[in-house]
Amino acid sequence: MATTLYIDADACPVKEEVYRVARRCGLKVFVVSNAWINTPREALIEQVVVDAGPDVADDWIAERAGRGDIVITADIPLADRVLESGAQALKSNGQPFTADSIGSALAGRMIGEHLRSMGVPTSGPPPFSAADRSRFLQALDAAVVRARREAL
């Protein structure tokens, strides 16, 4: 079972880091988005442009990711789906989604949606930093090690 990396790419700030790890480890990468994104033309990196629409990219990833794979996403419902299939899910700041954390993440998302529907202003994520990028690289390396261990 080979590990595959899936990037929910529309707003992902760590695509270059994923490519670097994929090259070093010899891993296939699918860069999934609703529009064309400039991606390296390499055998290991494949761009997938899906139809526009809510959750189309998420559905494409969720239908394919499974045990031993790693999904890079900020989308909490997508993370929940891929965790259920046995894949790992990482945010671009290096924070993993886990079976223990996904329930509270989903609840927090629902509360935020409810507050916004009532007109209450909510804050977005903090600005992406160099420290986030570094944590992501460390977390992705650790996720690859876990995935390879599962494959044994």
TrEMBL record:
<comment type="similarity">
    <text>Belongs to the UPF0178 family.</text>
</comment>
<protein>
    <recommendedName>
        <fullName>UPF0178 protein H9656_09110</fullName>
    </recommendedName>
</protein>
<dbReference type="Pfam" id="PF02639">
    <property type="entry name" value="DUF188"/>
</dbReference>
<dbReference type="InterPro" id="IPR003791">
    <property type="entry name" value="UPF0178"/>
</dbReference>
